[in-house]
Amino acid sequence: MPVGSPAAGSVTPPPAGPRPSPIAVIGVGVRAPGGVSDPASYWEAILAGRVLTGPLPDERRGPFGIEWDDLVTSGGYLDRPFDFDARFFDMAPREARTVDPQHRLLLEVTWEAYEDAGLPPAAAAEQTGVFVGITGLDYRQWQPGEPNSYTTLGNGHSFSAGRVAHQLGLQGPVFALDTACSSSLVAVHTACRALAMCDCDVAVAAGVNLILSPHTTRAVAKTGALSPDGTSRPFDAAANGFVRGEACGVVLLKRLSDAVRDRDRIRAVIEGSAINHDGRSDTFTSPNGSSQARLIRSVLAATGLTGADLGYHEAHGTGTALGDPIEVRAVLDALRSEPIGSDATGPVSASEAGTLWLGSVKANLGHTESAAGVMGLIKAVLCLHHRTIPPQPNFDTLNPRIEAGSELVIATEPRPWSPEAGQRASVSSYGMSGTNAYAVLSAAPAVEDGSTDGSTDGESPAAVEGFLVSARTPAALAELAERYRGWLAGLDEADYPAFAHTATFGRTRLRHAAWVSAATPAEAGRALAAFDGHPAVRLLTESDPLPRKADPAERVVATLPGYPWQHVRQVIGTESATGTGTGSEGKR
């Protein structure tokens, strides 16, 4: 019997309680290694099976120098993690340099999630909660000498969530969670519960992780869990440990009924989630397969689903020789407890009964620790949206300790999500602390006009009077105008009304703004090319009203280019910051 599996006859299915409230994912923000900066680039990397890990960048050595040299430092590292647009958030340079880069990253990626949702933060600020999974405190070790007035407020875990709420004016329940590797999926679960209980109407659920100190890597290495050759191989026979990784993922959540009412673009639906603990396992850090299986069964019971409804499982999948087999056994025990291959009328094929695809994004990114759960969730959201199973990198031969039947399949190339497979996805995240989290997701539902994203398919597009371009500084305004111009060059004319509506009403009006009068994408492109020298472009003062008012019945959300952050490198101990940022100070 595999280690951690339940004894025969010892597992009683959990009783079904009240059905969970379905929660809509309406916005996504993401930063990951390899230049991933939005959902589209994240999906592109996953679909291509790219491995985004590599050697330690020189800028990470910081004050530690040769202390890194005797460590296995291959990992998934973000590009330029110290860059930050402090002016956008009205943060003084000295404060910006002191604040943990993880907190700064959360500010920008949360803003990007709001823009992805086409929802200005002020729209529901009084009823918005913030739930952040965060573990690391590496940046404290960069700070020399006596702390300054910003040190405490810039580095404690509680201030990561509090700063997001403060900067965006959000007034719902706000707190950070640390359950080690499961932190961010626990944050998602907690956000879903807060929405279900009407503690808030909108929720920001996030996770972040940066690797900034050799001391933490050394401590993790002493557990024996790191891959000595710096390669992440979930489920593979050659798996020998995990690789550390960095990321920031943010999802914006609403109750599904509210999201449909408000004509939000729904990316996917969280049908149910749960958390539990391993309890008395072999050692404090040993996974407990029985607890993992019980957790999965509890969500199925609460949602009224069966294992056959699940077609894809995004596993915790760290690539350890012992942990992967325990997890896979628990997944199969819970999701495929009825033997595949027979039923009351005789034999059935695995394809008829339903294939269960298995994957782990840790092969792409490394183990992003406190961000791992939400990064896996976002991957599952994208798999559901694209109806595609992406390939699993670094997979060749199944770990011989994994006992899997023909129903369990690991893709080595992109595969269409067959209608014969279950139509839902699930995500697991397990903390070294023993806290486990699990969630089940489904694709976005069709709304009345037949779409799933608030688009106007099948309707005559509304006439466009123009749209707003708005940014924090003049330099950012000019850069955003150029981004819009490039975007419009490839935009179908039928999608122009959605573009104009989202640009005008789906983004926060900032200090510097311009109204572009253009009825077609071609006209808009010509105006943006000249910008403030074109007669169709009118610069607006902060007191100038918009030429048109928002009509909630016309709301539609389109994907637009992201905000052009005016980044400056902000590192503790430097007398002055240098970088690409320009622009003047001032309130939004």
Question: Care to describe what's here?
Answer:
Helices cover 28% and strands 17% of the residues. With 588 residues, the chain is of the alpha/beta class. The protein has an eleven-stranded mixed β-sheet, with helices on both faces. Strands 17-18-19 form a three-stranded antiparallel β-sheet. Strands 2-20 form a two-stranded antiparallel sheet. A hairpin with a 2-residue loop joins strand 9 (342-343) and strand 10 (346-347). Helix 3 crosses helix 5. The model is unreliable at 1-11, 338-353, 454-458 and 576-588 (pLDDT under 50).
Quick tags:
eleven-stranded mixed beta sheet, alpha/beta, about 600 residues, disordered N terminus, about 15% strand, three-stranded antiparallel beta sheet, disordered C terminus, single chain, globular
Structural class: alpha/beta
**Sequence stretches where pLDDT stays below 50 over 5 or more residues:** 1-11, 338-353, 454-458, 576-588
Number of strands: 20
Which whole number gives the mean pLDDT? 89
Number of helices: 16
Q: What oligomeric state do the depicted chains represent?
A: single chain
Percent of residues in helices comes to 25-40%
Could you describe the largest sheet, including whether it forms a barrel?
A: 11 strands, mixed
Q: What percentage of amino acids are in beta strands?
A: 15-25%
